[in-house]
Amino acid sequence: MNFNIISYCIYIPIIFFITLKIGWILYKNGEVFLCDMFTNDVELVKNLNKLLLIGYYLINLGAATLTITYWDTVENVVEMLNTLATVLGKTIIVLALLHFNNIFWIILLNRKKQPVATLK
Amino acid sequence: METSKIIIAYFVYLPIVIGLTIFVSKKLFESGKSFMIEIFRGQENIALATNKLFEVGFYLINIGMGLILMKISERSVTYGISNQILIEVMGLKIGSFSIYLGVMLLLNLYLFLRGRKVTRSTQKTPEVPSFSMKK
Known about the structure:
Oligomer: heterodimer
Helix content of chain A: over 70%
Largest sheet of chain A: none
Number of strands of chain A: 0
């Protein structure tokens, strides 16, 4: 049991918890936007939302697990904390960027849609 | 000793890969039914059959890909496999397979949505002549 393995054991639960929590929040709140895009198709939206959630989980948890391969060797507690903070920070920033990207697309698509709706 | 660790890694990896594939394809093609029925305009037997065929294809491709990704390369063996390297290699394998599976899932979803769109756009065209016929 060296420090690398201990820090993996700390890192994996934290990052999994954050990813699962964020995915669940997005799943709950994203349904409204999907309903807006696919008008009057509740069953389809529910299925689509579920699949999007699973895709999100697979990709993000996979990427989080993948980063384990590229860690530096950790030799003492201070290094462990430093590396943990850096890697967690990087991963969370990437998540945030993806999230803002999603918001941007939702706004863009809604803006495109609205003039058509007012014309009708 | 070292080979036994690799074998342990394989025995951890295979159930995870196969279980993940079965779970994802079950979820995907449960939801796929409603898409397929819409794509085939309510012809339920054709839709369900196509759904089943797609599901079998999905299983084949993903389990095949999982098996191809399984091999742990010689490079890490020559250094001697410690527990740490074992965990790292497993992380690499399972993580990359999970990302691959996610991309396949979203690709399939894209195909469903595209098929639905195509069906909708072709459905609208017959309506136009019927309107002009009435006039």
